[in-house]
Amino acid sequence: MGAAKNIWALANAEDEANGNDAEQIPYSSFIVDTSLPLPLMIPRIIELCKDLFKNWRDLDDSLFSVERVSGGITNLLLKVSVKEGTDREVSVTVRLYGPNTQYVINREREILAIKYLSAAGFGAKLLGGFGNGMVQSFIYARTLEPSDMREPKIAAEIAKELGKFHKVDIPGSKEPQLWVDIFKFYEKASTLRFEEPDKQKLFETISFEELHKEIIELREFTGLLNAPVVFAHNDLLSGNLMLNDEEEKLYLIDFEYGSYNYRGFDIGNHFNEYAGYDCDYSLYPSKEEQYHFIKHYLHPDKPDEVSIAEVESVFVETDAYKLASHLYWAIWAIIQARMSPIEFEYLGYFFLRYNEYKKQKPLTFSLVTSHLSASV
Q: How far is Cα of residue 265 from the mean position of the Cα atoms in its chain?
């Protein structure tokens, strides 16, 4: 895990190089075995926290409590609560990376960005790092469900927060990473082999020659739109959105896929996530719902003053890049099917996303072509 330590050292060095006086992020070389059942994992988590935070080192283990918060399809989240005194309890979130996620996630990119995003008010505060994860402040809020995202008030708030997120300046290259990442995924996915005969047989039905042609064609087609490049979240599904109902405060969390990317990809990807993991695309937002979101994204204080021409332009851009979202996560799923120990029908997910891409492609190409012709 020397590479992990180097990444954290680089993040701290980046602060010094940029004249940032922010407190250095502590790092521990501890590695937590994510395959352990929670009761066996708890002593290791407590040991990790004591190693990272010196004010907890002399506390008795009985003052710590550890519970599972959630587990997505890449990470395991644990809530650690510590009784620091008779009337004071502090909670943090320990995020454990899923095994083999380095094949689909650039951890260096994530860690270098997360400090700037945290400073800008996004997500949880980064408190420490370790061999296979990080510790962050605990957010007192509920995780959204896909159905929450289409509630007009919540949709407007997501759009507003995403607009602010896209204005954060992250040091380093500003080159969009969409096609870099997709080709990287493709190179890895196309050379895989599965030990399970049924999975290998299903894998062999995938035409990587066809898939490569689709990637090339879509890259050239979306390039005609000259979409703005922003620092994008790239994974704005309901599980990465939290809401404190009492305070009416929305949080964008988990920036592990974040990078500079095309604006339309981030919005189009979010709209695709209305369908949930079941990929029920009958739930994709209507044009009216998309317009509502786009207006609040462009001008949150006066959404009704945004011109129809401007809204339509972003709507078309978003529709084009929603196809790229399907390709991105479809190819990602092939890699996960081979590398991830998490129980999830990843190969089935590939076909759900790729089939929806092929279904939507002629409609989107027609829409974009008409828009470009009308704007000449």
A: 12
Torsion sign (Cα): 51, 54, 60, 63:
negative
Are the CB atoms for 227 and 260 separated by under 8 Å? Answer: no
Burial of 226 (0-12, 13-18, 19+ CB in 10 A): exposed
**Distance separating alpha carbons of residues 324 and 215, to the nearest angstrom:** 8
pLDDT tens-place values along the chain, 376 residues long: 455 555 555 555 555 555 554 568 899 999 999 889 999 999 999 999 999 999 999 999 999 999 998 756 678 899 999 998 778 899 999 999 987 777 788 888 888 899 899 889 999 999 999 999 999 999 999 999 999 999 999 999 999 999 999 999 999 999 999 999 999 999 999 999 999 999 999 999 999 999 999 999 999 999 999 999 999 999 999 999 999 999 999 999 999 999 999 999 999 999 999 999 999 999 999 999 999 999 999 999 999 999 999 999 999 999 999 999 999 999 999 999 999 888 899 999 999 999 999 999 999 999 999 999 998 7
* Residue 15: CB atoms within 10 Å: 17
The sheet with strand 241-244 has its strands ordered as: 142-143, 241-244, 249-252
Quote the pTM value.
Answer: 0.92
